[in-house]
Specification:
Radius of gyration: 27 Å
Mean pLDDT: 78
Strand content: under 5%
Low-confidence stretches: 290-333, 353-365
Number of helices: 13
Helix content: 55-70%
Strand order of the largest sheet: 1-2
Number of domains: 1
Structural class: mainly alpha
Number of strands: 4
CATH topology: Rhopdopsin 7-helix transmembrane proteins
Distance between the termini: 79 Å
Shape: elongated
């Protein structure tokens, strides 16, 4: 294996030697540990909310995709924690095993796009199950195909940085070629940001047409738009990626962008799970006895629209009368009345009608 010093000019190498004791290891440990805890917590709340909705745990494809994504997140974070042993977070003169450090980078390059793609597809599957519009569902399918093509391209370009791969860490290999990291970063990150923005904006026109109050529409849209922070992080990562690919000291230079990538996956897990938290929000509101005008224990918002996940659909039709059901849709309404019924010889009648001792009742429903 060639000497890493051969990868740098004399001035650059001497500069790194002066800072050989600098380390970003504590940053890696703190960010990755927090990401593990938060990602598992967001997933746990999602599964608990699913259980609240039906009384038992039943998962659909959006849940399984989210679970797979969190698994990839665990791989990314553990991979970076292991990378500390091989010099991740240190300047190049402190790196003793350049080959292992590059392999750590390759594993992260493969699993990060997988985690992001899983969360994107999870949201698209959720959209498909909620909104009945045929045109919208075709848009979900088209975007899903684009996401799958994106993740394949990102994984291949992130793993096959050089052909042969040994050229990454061994400067004595003169055959083959390497793809500039800047080129890869621009192509994959630009398409990544495009899909994030498109997926976030897709349901907005349908939510606007829901028959509910403006405040509830804003709250439902805000739930989807949690992912807006993910887009901001993706944009912020782009210049950091370009900088890390130009200096050669990637064990040190890659850390700011890498930590943002970990934060990006973690917040994306929340963004993909937030629309499913309706039953959980309802339970919290009931227990706190909060008087909410929006979604909560009284219904009419996220808690209603997303309770069933794959089985619920938001209707665009007019509200129906209490007790009427017109299909697999959910009607959001602010108008409801409470009545007390009494069982009279197997039939249910309003309490006011039973005070005279009548015996005729409604047949049990």
């Amino acid at each position: 294996m060639a000497d890493p010093q051969q990868m740098f000019d004399k001035e650059r190498w001497e500069s790194m030697l002066r800072h050989i004791d600098d380390t970003r290891e504590q940053t890696i440990i703190a960010v990755c540990s927090l990401a593990i805890v938060l990602s598992l917590s967001f997933l746990g709340l999602r599964l608990y909310s699913r259980r609240l909705a039906l009384g038992y745990l039943k998962l659909d494809w959006s849940d399984w995709l989210c679970i797979g994504s969190v698994f990839c997140t665990m791989v990314v974070t553990i991979d970076m924690l292991v990378g500390i042993k091989y010099g991740l977070g240190r300047h190049m003169p402190a790196v003793k095993d350049l080959r292992s450090l590059y392999l750590i980078l390759i594993i992260a390059n493969a699993t990060h796009p997988s985690a992001m793609a899983g969360l994107k597809l999870s949201l698209l599957v959720l959209y498909y199950s909620i909104f009945p519009s045929r045109r919208f569902r075709w848009c979900c399918i088209a975007m899903g195909i684009f996401v799958m093509l994106w993740v394949i391209a990102s994984m291949v370009s992130g793993v096959a940085l050089c052909i042969p791969i040994q050229k990454l860490w061994d400067s004595s290999v003169t055959t083959g070629f390497c793809v500039p990291l800047i080129t890869i970063g621009l192509a994959t990150t630009a398409s990544h940001i495009f899909t994030d923005i498109a997926i976030l904006l897709m349901p907005v026109p349908l939510v606007v047409k829901l028959h509910t109050s403006r405040d509830r529409k804003v709250l439902i849209i805000s739930t989807f738009m949690v992912g807006g922070l993910v887009c901001a992080i993706s944009i912020a990562r782009l210049p950091l990626w370009m900088n890390s690919g130009s200096g050669g000291d990637f064990g040190w230079d890659n850390i700011p962008g890498g930590m943002l990538a970990v934060a990006e996956i973690t917040i994306s897990t929340l963004a993909a799970s937030a629309p499913v938290y309706g039953p959980l929000i309802s339970q919290v509101c009931r227990k706190s006895k909060a008087n909410l005008s929006g979604p909560g224990a009284n219904g009419g918002g996220i808690a209603d629209v997303f309770t069933q996940g794959s089985k619920a659909e938001a209707t665009r039709g007019p509200p129906v009368a209490p007790g009427r059901f017109t299909g697999r849709s959910i009607t959001v309404t602010d108008e409801f009345e409470l009545h007390t019924y009494h069982n009279v010889q197997g039939g249910w009648r309003p309490l006011s009608d039973t005070s005279d001792g009548g015996t005729d009742g409604l047949s049990p429903g």
